[in-house]
Design goal:
The chain is of the alpha+beta class. The protein is built from 5 helices and 6 strands, in the order ααβααβββββα. It binds zinc ion (3 copies). One zinc ion binds at residues 96, 98-99, 101, 131, 133-134.
Amino acid sequence: MKTHIEDKLINKNTKPTSMRILVYDFLSSQDAALSLSEIESHFDHADRTTIYRTLKTFEEKGIVHSIQENTTTKYKLCHDGCDETTHKDWHLHFYCKICKQTTCKEDISFPENVQTNFRIDEIRLFAKGICETCLESLQ
Ligand SMILES: [Zn+2]
Ligand SMILES: [Zn+2]
Ligand SMILES: [Zn+2]
């Protein structure tokens, strides 16, 4: 498990420090995107700044992408296609008003190969509504 994470980090030109491995391991076990506070509350012995720096490094190296939600930033692991030059997370991010979870909806995305005479560096697709699980419990 740990060596698998080390390889992932090395592939993204990131030195696999123990903190980075821990944060990566935790994020990979989560289905929803998490805020800094949510990630911090999982780690008893790490300070906020260290976790924040780890997330910033991950974002620069194409390991996590951030999702801006009003005043909160949430983080979710990227796929292998992202690297330190470009993020390709051009998919919908969905916020559920009931369970308050933000998830990546990879099947709804902006086409990567779209031809434009301008350069797109970042795309934000964001939707709010009620997720599958909460919809079921409403019925
Ligand atoms: Zn990405
Ligand atoms: Zn929900
Ligand atoms: Zn995403």
